[in-house]
Design a protein that fits this description.
By secondary structure, the chain is of the alpha+beta class. It has helices at 5-10, 74-100, 104-115, 142-150, 155-158, 213-231, 241-250, 257-266, 284-294, 317-324, 327-330, 347-360, 374-383, 386-390, 394-406, 410-419, 424-431, 435-449, 456-480; strands at 18-20, 30-33, 44-51, 57-63, 66-71, 119-123, 128-131, 162-163, 169-170, 177-180, 186-194, 197-205, 271-277, 300-304, 307-313, 334-337, 366-369. A five-stranded mixed β-sheet has the order 1-5-4-3-2, covered by helices on one side. Strands 7-6-12-11-10 form a five-stranded antiparallel β-sheet, covered by helices on one side.
């Protein structure tokens, strides 16, 4: 087995080591006694020592630019150094023996003899496959207890944002690395990949002792053994025909009437489309865990792009979110619920509405309803059309030109009058001016524009023009920011 300088350092605490380790990769296979390292000795940790005038012996272990300097008895340290290699070789052999039995639990428990911290492995749906036996019955935290009792990765863990040690937002990869949880604790996490498919995840929490670089190297060995154990019983998400059909519809594939009728018979319209997206973290374990929860209800959940999508009954969509999507995960996720619809061929439009809502919410977590954003989206569609902008009521440009020259506010006066249903008092209060002042400004605006407030068509045209223009201004502001 190849070990690293970090792994050696972890076993020499009694010698009060001082160290400089920049590489620390796992490439060491043995020991050489030499004051100089040549090119042929890259795989060995070299040992040199010096007896100090005060009688103390300093022992130097080095490899390339990595160095560990210890003080103490030379014979004891050399014996311990050889035992370190024997220990890790025996540990590696035990790991692979357990992996040959295809036992996740056995592999984790053997890994735990060295890592000595709680370890958990789960499939991509968040189902816990095994937990460290040494800790499973201990009440370590509410999250660990929840995993033990429900056999599911806790929502607060699967949905919480992660940081690298340098403070950058991150998510798991296929290589075990150190991450910082929201509570400041250090963890090691990675996806387990078999034949190019992510089938599980492994997490290690610093509890008995702090997570170190040595733990990362050891976890990578544990990772390889678990992948071997997983290979014979690979777990993957079952592909439901309804979910596959809806995914094809969203992707623009040709629909077939028979599938559409079958889905409509099973889940009668009207429907709403729910889009759940975690802007801070896009973990597959988190997403598959959510999918599994929705499967217990009459709906069609599936993954599309970077989000969990759910086709649900219109009348039950809100209750479904409350039942399935825990409050803890809403701290980090956006839940967008579309307007109701009856025609599955329009599902792409409703998906775009949910995306529009998410963009308007500026990636802020929370629950958002289509009814609250439908007008804004409709106006945005008008505002993106140059012909629509050319057809705006001419009164708007007249008022803006007048305001620019006179430093007045007639443009906003007329808008508030219309948007408040021609209510003088409410409009004046909205502008924080006296009623008489507002009436004077309104009359001046009417004179300049020849606007007929009694004509309902004229009022609707002018108010719609205001909304389209203001929508364009909002869009420009968002774009600039």
């Amino acid at each position: 087995m190849k070990i690293s300088m970090w792994m050696i350092l972890d076993k020499l605490e009694q010698y009060h080591p001082r160290y400089t380790i920049s590489d620390g990769s796992m490439h060491l296979t043995g020991i050489r006694f030499s004051a100089v390292q040549d090119d042929t000795q890259g795989q060995f940790v070299c040992v040199d020592w010096e007896k100090r005038p005060d009688g103390e012996t300093w022992i130097r272990l080095f490899n390339g630019g990595d160095e560990i300097v210890c003080s103490g008895g030379l014979d004891g340290l050399l014996n311990d150094l050889m035992r370190i290699f024997d220990f890790y070789n025996a540990w590696e052999a035990a790991l692979w023996e357990a992996a040959s039995h295809k036992s996740f639990q056995e592999v984790i428990d053997i890994g735990n003899t060295v890592l000595n911290n709680p370890i958990m492995i789960s499939d991509m749906r968040g189902n816990v496959l095994a937990m460290s036996s040494a800790f499973v019955n201990e009440d370590l935290s509410v999250y660990w207890n929840e995993s033990r009792e429900r056999h599911l990765v806790p929502d607060a863990i699967s949905g919480a944002p992660l940081l690298t040690e340098s403070g950058e937002a991150a998510t798991w990869t296929d290589t075990p690395e150190i991450y910082i949880m929201p509570d400041g604790s250090r963890t090691i996490g990675a996806y387990l990949t078999v034949d190019g498919e992510r089938v599980a995840g492994i997490g290690i929490w610093g509890r008995n002792r702090p997570i170190t670089e040595s733990d990362v190297h050891l976890t990578r060995m544990l990772y390889d053994a678990l992948v071997s154990a997983l290979d014979a019983q690979k777990l993957s998400l079952p592909l439901h025909s309804s979910a596959a059909f809806l995914t094809d519809l969203l992707s623009g594939a040709q629909y077939d009437d028979e599938s559409m009728e079958a889905l409509s018979a099973r889940y009668p319209p009207p429907w709403r489309l729910i889009r759940i997206n975690n802007p801070l973290r896009r973990d597959e374990i988190h997403q598959h865990n959510l999918l599994q929860r929705f499967w217990a209800y009459p709906c069609v959940p599936f993954l599309y792009e970077d989000a969990v999508i759910v086709l649900a009954s219109s009348g039950e969509a809100l209750a479904l979110v409350d039942a399935v999507f825990p409050a803890q995960q809403r701290l980090y996720s956006q839940v967008c619920i579309s307007l109701p619809f009856h025609d599955l061929k329009k599902i792409r439009m409703l998906y775009e509405q949910n995306r529009f809502i998410g963009q308007r919410a500026a990636q802020t977590p929370g629950l958002y309803r289509g009814e609250d954003y439908a007008l804004a989206q409709l106006l945005s569609l008008f505002g993106e059309n140059e012909q629509a902008l050319a057809l705006l009521h001419p009164a708007l440009s007249k008022l803006k030109q007048y305001d620019a020259g006179k430093h007045s506010n007639l443009y906003e006066t007329l808008y508030q009058y219309l948007v408040h249903g021609r209510g003088i008092q409410a409009a004046a209060e909205a502008m924080h001016v006296h009623r008489n002042t507002f009436i004077y400004r309104l009359e001046r605006a009417r004179e300049i524009t020849d606007f007929d407030a009694e004509d309902p068509v004229s009022r609707i045209y002018l108010l719609l023009s205001y909304m389209i223009e203001k929508q364009g201004n909002i869009h420009d502001s968002i774009t600039k920011n």
